[in-house]
């Protein structure tokens, strides 16, 4: 703006949206590439202080002797690692602390202005952590290394992670980063966006309330079912490198909160019917996601449990069985289907005038299709012919009759 000449007609300087009387700024999807932020927008000394304080708080909560301690799957050397299951406790204690800070006059709405500096600090932290992880992995015994993370190509190994379960004593760095600071941080950033909206508009909008509560439910659900993460690919197969460190600490909290951040400057009005339809989509998605995940976890933990013992199964050469009825008889990844319905329900409250709120659902569809393909290959290698007959019985991967 400062470079424009004084002779330019005023009407050309005003954004098109403002000229036409819209309340929100212009959608910039057609102005590609978008302008990059200035360096000073990426730096605020408060950001690294807040970020490190947040990490330290969650490290302390991880170590507190609350909740049960459980064992992970059997490792290559025959041992099983112990993990504290107190993520949900950490969420509750963080909520109480946050309420205390708010009562003491903390301005959570400042997270809106701090969004970019915090994201930049989180990216810097994930690089530092990844360098530490890469270097320390050279001192790890061979059986502690991830099978896929030791190709000898330093860039690839740095990215994918060399050591499977890097630990400092009882403190498991990968397990710690997977859910706690990033997921709870995402919920707090969302709350900051809601408070910013209240500051600007006087009250929270229905669209913002839907987005924030849907995502809070997702975070609380993940922490409530924290034990289930011990059998996921991230914990069982992948080493801890830049991919997971960046994903957990920077990507999740700062891109998953984009819908709430978008709504601050782009208020949306939802009719009751629209809101009801979106809530219904979320409820359907959550039901499929939770029930299918719980059904498989229950089956893997105790196949004789009454809730799963009557389901039809296929035997495999490994001794494990595969479910072919119930949720896992509908498609081969019903949990991904439910997750994608939920992702769409988070975007719809933001309307259709911009692509940004749909970034998550688009990225997540690509991620889950790729993840499904990766899992499919691992299952084929594990179960061979039994997997082929499962695929014949259940031909669709994620979307019934589509994919
Ligand atoms: P899954 O929970 O889908 O687990 C896949 C494993 O389940 C397979 O390797 C196999 O392992 C077992 N399995 C597959 N088919 C059957 C069957 N028919 N019967 C019994 N067991 C079967 O893995 P993910 O970790 O990918 O997903 C977990 C959840 O996390 C999902 O809901 C997903 O949507 C969500 N997620 C969310 C992300 C986000 O960023 N929001 C990112 C990634 C995942 P085995 O036989 O060895 O037990």
From TrEMBL:
Gene3D superfamilies registered for this protein in UniProt: 1.20.120.1630
Biological pathway: Steroid biosynthesis; cholesterol biosynthesis
Subcellular location, record wording: Endomembrane system; Endoplasmic reticulum membrane; Microsome membrane
Class of enzymatic activity (EC top level): oxidoreductase
Bilayer topology: Multi-pass membrane protein
Family: Belongs to the ERG4/ERG24 family.
Protein name: Delta(14)-sterol reductase TM7SF2
Record lineage: Eukaryota, Metazoa, Chordata, Craniata, Vertebrata
Protein's gene: tm7sf2
